[in-house]
Amino acid sequence: MRKKMILMIILLISVLIGQDQYRSIQHAQDDWQDYTQFQKHELLSFCDFLITEGIYERALLSLFQYLYRYPGDSLETVIYYYIARSYEFSNNPELANMYYNRVQEISGSTDIVFRAAEFRKMYLLLGGGEYDQIFEKTELSENPYDLIFRGYAFFHKMRWIEARQAFLAAEEQFDHPYYSKRLTPMFKAIDASANVPLRNKWLSFTASFVPGGGYAYLDQWETAGGTIISFILISSILTSSALLQSGQLTFEETNQAVIPVSGGIKTINGSFTDQRGYSVPGKISLTTANVKMLIPPIVVGAGLYIGSIWKTWMDVDEANKVRVQRFVGKVTDKISIDRFMDFPEPELMVK
Description:
Layout: H1 2-22, H2 25-52, H3 56-69, H4 76-89, H5 93-105, H6 112-127, H7 131-137, H8 144-156, H9 160-174, H10 177-194, H11 201-207, H12 213-217, H13 221-238, H14 255-258, E1 267-268, E2 271-272, H15 295-334
Antiparallel strand pairs: 1-2
Helix pairs in contact: 2-3, 3-4, 4-5, 4-6, 5-6, 6-8, 7-8, 8-9, 9-10, 11-15, 13-15
């Protein structure tokens, strides 16, 4: 019995000593630091997973949560960068641009994150058609990615020589077969765009003599259809019986309705007979003296016809421009600038 009591006392003392060691301040701080570091790593890993999977709305919540939990963290600029990217891929370029600017405000101009934010901003400018701003930003740059943006901007502006020069300069700066291979389709696209078959003004002029024909030649099908319908309406007005008769008479009226048959006036086989001294013509033709009613539709039709010929002639250059722009749009969809967006970017997780 005594041995059992001694053993229990020894166990109790061991537990108390162990608890005291675990409850020491240093021990608790170490455990808490390990716990918070684990949480931080898990949150970063979750953010990285969401961005990789393209779940940008949920990624934004987690990234802002990280900033709230760890203010002033060493990864703050990187977090802001991926907030901007998440806004960009959520089709919110205004907020994306705002956070890219925030990244550049709190980082140095030589930092990777600063340069990456600048390239992403130019990507937004290119997508928004702000080509002049790209020209201004890249005017004296020798950075190959800047030159790529410059080349695409010139290509969209249909300035083929400047586009080729920019891409050649980019190829020289990259100085690597990988980029030379990727740039080859752009040089071919420039040649193809510069040689897109254009509409001929004289053929357009000749086709315009047929109502709507000039517009059809220029692929302006809606305008061509509207012109044809307008001419059909005007033609129906000009040939309307209401304009060829006086009063309320129409061609469907019978002779009896025009001259009522009564007291000695009758018709035989549709012709009036002369009885009791009446002299009535056998045939009656209806005419009108109201020729002025024909003037407005004739003037409108002539104006529409002459106007369509003149507008077709004037629209040839614009139609050619639209045709080339359409071709350029197809090319840039197929050979997107995304193939060159491989510049260094900051990482959320060190792989």
